Amino acid sequence: MVLERMDALKESENLVEKEMHISRYKYAANIINSHIYHNNYKKSLSNSKYKVLDIACGLGYGSYLLNKLTGASVVGVDIDKKR
């Protein structure tokens, strides 16, 4: 069974740990956005779609955040067939 390290949507989680957990995904989103901006500015890639493969995504919370924060196409895969 595969679980997220932390359920950031659960109100009973420690608020400091919750913010640190979410900030890691925001950090990754900033890197992706920076890369997208740089490439679009430098190369004018009008038809290009950015794709992210999230391996060992658990419930997919991080995949969801990356998609919402960057607009990139995100595919999450995990070994647990139930998820």
From TrEMBL:
Name of the protein described by the UniProt record: Methyltransferase
Signal peptide: none
GO biological process: methylation
Keyword Transferase: yes
Keyword Transferase: yes
Entries under Gene3D superfamilies matching the protein: Vaccinia Virus protein VP39
CDD domains: AdoMet_MTases
Keywords: Methyltransferase, Transferase
Database matches in InterPro entries: SAM-dependent_MTases_sf
Molecular functions (GO terms): methyltransferase activity
SUPFAM superfamilies noted in UniProt: S-adenosyl-L-methionine-dependent methyltransferases (SSF53335)
